[in-house]
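sorry for the late reply, my laptop died twice this morning and i had to redo everyting from scratch. anyway the thing you sent over, i finally got around to it. pasting the sequence first so we're on the same page, its 544 residues, then the predicted structure underneath. double check i copied it right bc i was rushing
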Amino acid sequence: MKKYLKLWILPLVLVVVSLGARTLARSAWDSLVDFRAPQFSLEPGERAEPLSRVVIVVADGLRIDAFHRIDYLSRHKQNGAYFILKTGQPSLSLPSFAVIATGAWQDVTGVTTNWFEGPVRQDSLFSLASDAGIASAIVGEEGWGKLFGEAAAKSFTRKWEDDYITFDERTLEKAIEFLSESPGLLLVHFVETDEAGHDFGGASPEYQKYADHIGTLIERLHRNLPEDAVLMVTADHGQIDRGGHGGWEEVVTHVPLLMFGKRINPGDYGKAKQTDIAPTAAALAGLPIPPYSQGRILAEALDLGDRKAQLQELISRQKEAFTKAYLKAIGANTEQILAEVKPLPTEGGDAYWDRVFESGRKAKIAARRARNIPLVLAVALLPLLAFWIAGRKYALSFARPAVLSLLYFAVFYGLFFASGKTVSLSAINDEDLLQRFFNEVMLSAAVAAVAAVIGLAFLDRRKERYEAAKSSVILIAVIAFLVLLQIDLFFLHNGPLLTWHIPDMRLGFKYYLDLMALVILGLASVVFPLISIGAHRLWSRLEF
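ok and here's the structure:
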């Protein structure tokens, strides 16, 4: 009996590891939700004279393929300037709203989830309009009001509660009412494509039906625009086929932008970025370039007349001020970077400062990864050292447990993908299902571990029962170690928590899944010796 009690020494260690993984998982999640962007202050620069009024329409969750099937927009595409925009991650609504209005990515605005409590700290199109004495208005869902309602001269935002069509019809009515007051900047947000995508899927006929209805709303809005207005139609993010967004998928992170009006040069211009909307709108509306903007003016699509050189100079100054302030805030060696990155004869000032920014950011990330190496080595080598010492002292065999650990991963990922999940935030179709999603991940890990333990008991059925149970403990330790190595990979790239930048969210989401798996493996490890003993007894009786 005494020797059997020794079987629980390692499981108790794994329980401690599990509790640590749970604490780390909570801290890692909090570091995303309460992301602390680098802190620095910038003042708006000069502004050029207005070229036109600007109306921005954001169709929530509108996919590119659905956009092209909307009759009104596809007909006007030949008369407008069309771009495919790359969004940031997480590809959620509030983070994208902040990108559209400020021109800054999520790890600069600090708006990383839909749980952000506004207002946005950085200057936006609306605050700049207010400072310039240009009337602005927002109509749409309450997220815009939380982020920018205080900055806009007029705002009509509310929580989505009606049916799809009623909500957006009311949005259109209010937008037309605001247009009668001749604002220099108006943002209109339609929601039904996003709601339909979540309910029916982004590839469903129902989704397209509501996308078509948004097309009729845009047509009615367009008919009420003054002649000097430029209409910009875009989306905050897309939708995966089964419904959902937030992740890295191309259908989610690429959205349309169509601009039409007197100041627009028609054409299909290819790829751009979501951060380009704000500086382009600012150039048209006669606003200063948003000081935190990381985008560019889409000048090739605009008839800027004799103001092109002036606007180029303004955005070059803005990029210089932003880049220097940002690099200082993250502790980069700006002088060294400027010495290494030289202007190219053919590039504008804004493009040069973009290269300086990227060089400084990459250097800082590389330096952080170098500092992470001791932690990474410790996480990887200390368990290996423990395995080596235990193996020599107790003559442990790791061969079969190592082979059966492959069964764990086969079962775990089989259950994971068979249930329709992906390694992406988009797999969580509704924020209310977040906890359920991670509970299912932990359940899959537990089932996979049980399958591996039972499989090992079958292979060890001719061994003494105690030896078979001991092998099961080694198996769980090996599985936990292999999961830990995957966590360690994220440590190398980023460290345990998100700090001043947001890494590739595919790797980040995988990191969180691995933490959840490690939590349940550690907590359940105390029962695996019992499962092994029972399975060994069963296989021994069934042996033929």
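The mean pLDDT is 93.
thats about all i looked at so far, will dig more tmrw
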